[in-house]
Amino acid sequence: MKQIVIISGKGGTGKTTVAAALARIVQQKILVDVDVDAANLEIVTDAKLVSSEPFSDAQISSIDTEKCIRCDLCRQNCRFGAIDVDAGGNYFVDEHSCEGCKVCQLVCPADAVSVSETQSGTIKKSQTPYGTLWHGELSTGRDNSGKMVTFLREKGAKEAQDANLPYVLIDGAPGVGCQVIASVTGVDMALIVSEPTLSAIHDLKRIAELAQHFRVPAILVVNKTTINKSLTNEIKRWANSQNIPIAGEIPVDVRIVKSMAQRKSPLEIGDEKLSKIYYGIWSKVSEFIEQKL
Ligand code: SF4
Ligand code: SF4
Question: Deepest in the core among 109, 203, 240, 292, taking most CB within 10 A?
């Protein structure tokens, strides 16, 4: 079973458009959307929720106002500024600031503080016409989602293994933060989607470096090539210098944006030339996997 992550250095390069097309092209796979801040593969694959479960990766403290003797020690010792006093003089914990370090519990002389697990999001399993999709949603105010990314990937990999499916296709998070590191670590290959703009090229170099750091072979798709031919050529020259093969070049086409808005993939536009590009991308990716692995 091979895990393929689709990533881009920045948002808006068309990563999910490519993922939506591959979801239809690649047979026998599990889909995983680890862009947990803005999961949208479910929308463009017409996913129907099958089950959901709470996800917890953090602890927060709470104060029992009946037991509290208002000594202020917890507030003075909380280095995250998570403890405050309300208008009635009662101490309380701001759950969005609490890091669950338990210092308040240790210093409390009245045994008024308890620390418990908090739900930081929801893990969802959905069924699409193209196979199972694992995806997640973070609770409002929660932004550290590396653990959720890892958890989703484990779910997808296990289901693929149990069903003897050859691929897990992972729609990664944008950027180069902890979510992306969790998306890339231990996968078999990365399909990077970039576009010919200066900021995208800058981010492409950073994400390629990240893949290289984690020894993940990378292949590149240049999206929206027609917005800037000269920068497209610059990306191709750079990719060549880094031994990163080009899996495909996708021109700007307003019908692609429209198809996504209608919860469809670019394949459903019915343009033979465009479909050929996406099928060509998968053909290059599968050849690349054969060669590298
Ligand atoms: S657990 Fe730590 S961060 Fe949370 S309120 Fe207590 S001292 Fe502050
Ligand atoms: S340390 Fe305990 S008793 Fe003192 S203010 Fe905080 S919760 Fe109340």
Answer: 203
